[in-house]
Target: Putative plant transposon protein domain-containing protein
Amino acid sequence: MDEDAEFEYDQHKFTSKAAARRFLEIMHVSILSERHVNLKVGEFDDFRLELERRKWHRVLGNLPNEVDEVLVKEFYANAYNSDGSLPCQAKVWGKMIKFNRKALNTFLRTPIFPADRNTPYGDFLIEDKDLEAIVARLCILGESYVIGVSRTPVRILRKHLNSLAHIWSVFSYNNISPNTHTSDINLERSYLIFAIMTKIENDIGVVISQEIALIASNATKLGFPALITALCKAKGVVSNTPIFLRLQSPINSRFISKHCINPAVDHVPAPRPVPRPRPPNVPRASSSEATSQAAMSKMFARQEDIWDSKQAVRRGTRCLMDNLHKLSLAVPNTPDDYLMTGAQFDECISWPRGRPKSQWGGVEEVPPDDDA
Model:
């Protein structure tokens, strides 16, 4: 009897016997979850601001924190084409889940580029590459690509990446082009990270659509599980599978400081504290008048400080003279007028009364206390 005729499968879950068999084949394949990006203003802004400029913070870096492992594997099983062609949609529990460029960009709320021409990133990929420029942007000083047996560049070691390139590599490994081999970046990933860091525009829907199709065809690590779970639920797929998997640890300030900062050289500024809001400015006179008044106020304030310090020195000297005179009286055979008293010191070395006044400040000096 034909083996296929004996093979029974759930037609509500799988579109064909081939899809059901594919599901059994990938049941042992691991899931590679995405990461959230949780950064505040002032925390690694070189990374955060570019993420926001590309609109990747809206959904791609902020996916729901749940992964339905069985549903994800049913999705990949139904997306598999036995003829080797790359899929762009999969039917899951009777619902058609599209993952072409337009569907993904719509769901991710990212820009949709015209389909009839290349994006700047597409043009960049077919151009001759300036590898020295890529190295200068991605690597720490003095490091470069590892050269392969054919004497061509093949990869950059993780320890040779600068901090910003390292952060982008982590994001790409989980949210753009899933891969568990993170000890280095290959040639293609170095192009992707260079394009991101130099603001070359790319269609993220195209990139992720191709990645999902390749995963479905090759049964490698099953990436984008949170995205696929969210796509299925958005189409009304209701699964009764318990949720046990979650996203990986988020890319936040603590994660970056621990895992992404290159100790050899730090090209990413440390997180800066958020500045406290300043109080509203009080209306002042015209700018020239206000500037003049401010300058004069500073000058007279400095004179006041000098005046006060000199007064303090004089009071100390007067007190010292009094004490020395009293001590001299206790020394035998010492004339009473051997040392001056404080009062005699004031008479001998007079201190001017009052101090200058001005429209910007200045107060009358308080005369020294004779009992001081």
About this structure: The two ends are 120 Å apart (CA to CA). Strands lie at 31-32, 35-38, 89-92, 95-98, 146-147, 153-157, 184-186, 222-223, 248-252.
